[in-house]
Amino acid sequence: MSETPDRLQQIAVDWEALVRQIPGATPVEHRHDGFWMTAPGLDVVAMAELMRRVDARLSAITGLAAEHGETAVIYHYCLGAAMVNIRTTTRDGAIRSITPATRTADWSEREIGDLYKVSFIGHPNPGRLLRPPSLSPGFFRDPRREGGGRG
C-alpha cells in the first residue's frame, strides 16, 4: 500500500521530532527512496535503542569507503511503511556496536568489519565472518592491493 503525500509529510514531521532526541542528530531529508539523515557524530547506540522502542526494524547496514581511511556506515530501518536511512561515519576506523541493543546487527557489523576494517566497539563476537583468512581486513577499501581485484 502506498502512502499519500499528506501521510508522508506527517511521517517526516514525526520522524524528525523523534530523531532530534538522539545526540548528534541532524535534519532529516525526504527523498524518493525514504527518509535520510547524514549525521557524522551520531550516537548510534542511542539511535538503536530509540529505534527499538518505536518498533522500527533494522533491515540492513551498509558500509562504504570514505575519505581519510574512514567508512560511512548506513543503518536502514523500516518504520511502518517508511524506509529510514541513517548515515554516519567511523572515527579512527571505529564506531560503537549496536549489536548489544539490536541483535540483528551482528552479522552486518562483522561483515563491514571484514570488508572495510571497521572496529565495532563493544561487539560481543567481533571475529572474522566471511573474509577468507588469506585476505587482510579491509579488502573492499582497495581490492587491487590484494592482487585479486580488478582495477
CATH architecture: 2-Layer Sandwich
Strand order of the largest sheet: 1-2-5-4-3
DSSP E strands, number: 7
Strand content: 25-35%
- CATH C-level: Alpha Beta
* The number of domains: 1
Helix content: 10-25%
Rg, rounded, reads: 16 Å
CATH topology name, in short, is Beta Polymerase, domain 2
Distance between the termini: 43 Å
Specify the overall morphology.
Answer: elongated
Largest sheet: 5 strands, mixed
Please, what is the CATH homologous superfamily? NADH:ubiquinone oxidoreductase Nqo5 subunit
The chain-level structural class is alpha/beta
Mean pLDDT, all residues: 86
Number of helices: 3
Uncertain segments = 146-151
Task: Itemize the secondary structure elements and their pairings.
Layout: H1 5-19, E1 29-31, E2 34-38, H2 44-53, E3 57-65, E4 71-79, E5 82-89, E6 94-96, H3 106-116, E7 119-121
Parallel strand pairs: 2-5, 6-7
Antiparallel strand pairs: 1-2, 3-4, 4-5
Summarize the structure.
The chain has helices spanning 5-19, 44-53, 106-116, and strands at 29-31, 34-38, 57-65, 71-79, 82-89, 94-96, 119-121. The protein has 151 residues and is of the alpha/beta class.
